[in-house]
UniProtKB/TrEMBL annotation, chain A:
<feature type="transmembrane region" description="Helical">
    <location>
        <begin position="53"/>
        <end position="74"/>
    </location>
</feature>
<keyword id="KW-0812">Transmembrane</keyword>
<keyword id="KW-1133">Transmembrane helix</keyword>
<dbReference type="InterPro" id="IPR010065">
    <property type="entry name" value="AA_ABC_transptr_permease_3TM"/>
</dbReference>
<keyword id="KW-1003">Cell membrane</keyword>
<dbReference type="InterPro" id="IPR043429">
    <property type="entry name" value="ArtM/GltK/GlnP/TcyL/YhdX-like"/>
</dbReference>
<dbReference type="InterPro" id="IPR000515">
    <property type="entry name" value="MetI-like"/>
</dbReference>
<feature type="transmembrane region" description="Helical">
    <location>
        <begin position="181"/>
        <end position="202"/>
    </location>
</feature>
<keyword id="KW-0813">Transport</keyword>
From TrEMBL, chain B:
<feature type="domain" description="Solute-binding protein family 3/N-terminal">
    <location>
        <begin position="50"/>
        <end position="277"/>
    </location>
</feature>
<dbReference type="Pfam" id="PF00497">
    <property type="entry name" value="SBP_bac_3"/>
</dbReference>
<feature type="domain" description="Ionotropic glutamate receptor C-terminal">
    <location>
        <begin position="50"/>
        <end position="276"/>
    </location>
</feature>
<dbReference type="InterPro" id="IPR001638">
    <property type="entry name" value="Solute-binding_3/MltF_N"/>
</dbReference>
<dbReference type="GO" id="GO:0006865">
    <property type="term" value="P:amino acid transport"/>
</dbReference>
<keyword id="KW-0813">Transport</keyword>
<comment type="similarity">
    <text>Belongs to the bacterial solute-binding protein 3 family.</text>
</comment>
<dbReference type="GO" id="GO:0005576">
    <property type="term" value="C:extracellular region"/>
</dbReference>
<protein>
    <submittedName>
        <fullName>Amino acid ABC transporter periplasmic protein</fullName>
    </submittedName>
</protein>
Amino acid sequence: MSLFEQNFSVFLQGFGHTLLASIFALVGSLILGTIFAIMQVTNSRTARSIGNIYVQVFRNIPLLIITLFFYLAVAKVIKMTGFTAGTIALTLYTSAFIAESVRAGILSIEAGQMEGARANGLTFGQAMRVIILPQAFKVAIPSLGNQFINLVKNSSILAFVGGLDLMYQGNIVAANSFDTFTTYIIIGLFYLVITLPLSYYIQHLEHKLKKNA
Amino acid sequence: MEKAKKRRFGLIATIILALAIVLGLFWAQQTVAHNAKHQDTLTRVKKSGKIVWGTKADTKLFGLMDTKTGQSEGFDVDMAKAVTKQIGKQIGEKLTPSFVTVSTASKIQLLKNTNIDGVFGVMTITPERAKIVDFSQPYFPAGQSLLVKKDSGIKSVNDLNDPSKTVLVVVGTTAAQNIKKFAPKAKTIALQDYASAMQALKAGQGQAISTDNAILYGLATENPDYQVVGGTLTNGPYGAAFDHDQKPMVDQVNQAINTMKKNGVYNQLIKKWFGQVPGLDWHDLEVHE
């Protein structure tokens, strides 16, 4: 416990960075993922293949490699810190998985709904926004929840590029105090502070939407 | 399922999960307690006929993985081999060395868990560390220094003492703690290992790497655009590390190192590894007794 008290400000700083990176990446990957999911279900062959290539590239490369690419290669052209590089990589990586979840949601809606919407004079964009996506998200929520929780835990990738997050601070505290065991237990509990409420919120959302249906 | 059944299922599942967690914690505590119990390293070594050494795999000149053989090679590795052989002679038993790759962050925990018997891993002897582990006598005279790009204009640590400068260090090294004393205004970023630190320096994520001169010479050998500057900021010799309270083992190792320094084996190893380093006179490292 004295380890916790002595390093409280350090842990808190790490917690703040992890929370911030998670929020940025969550919002960013949800927007990007939805865009690429829609691209994959349009009639345009170009849009479909761009969406497909994007998803395959970022889904099939380890997150660490994407992170190091931004930290070591892209940073030579555009200056960015480890925090920025890690958050961007996390956003792109997660967005590929979210695109797949959302796409699955869209595909679960009968084709007739889109046809009907179009027959009634809605544009593709309007039909997506008003008719298809609200239903698709309802279906996709359990799987989106998984992605969000993974995202929070994956944010520990920032530690590898000096991103000042929880894992980074934990590594330093562990190395300085020589008490690896206790330090990582404390770090684990801090992650739970983010992931458990997130899990419950997703569950709650699921129930609520089920009732409305 | 009807409601009552569902509820009963939920209740049983919760109880089983809770039990599993409690038992798991209990088991973990037992294991930790068992590991904390004093185990005599020398006795263990005699029994198994081998010494398991932790060495680095990412540190040129001291312990660097040869990708062809999969074995680490360097001064630390050769020292460990020679010390093992010498201890074998001292106790009159045939001992073989075996090697486990350790990271800067993991080496002490591995020692504590008795996964390894000793560490030859570019480890600076410090009073804080000496409370946790036992050190042998110094086997290499190292000191903290700086590696910078040749055209950077940085000549000493004073040039780095500025909020616009970032110094790259490696997690768990003494340099990571010391640099704040020498350049309190500079930002520091701790990376996982020396290879990442070097890559980050090349990518412009920092203006200098600060760690032991011995390691920086290795990095400079591989990257001719970079040079070691500013002399040594600290005097921090390396020692082999063992679990706490392992006097019999440490005595054997100290005796072995003494013998090697006297019979010339030590100087041979110094020449083998540091004879070709640019900007370093290996004769300074030789021991004459």
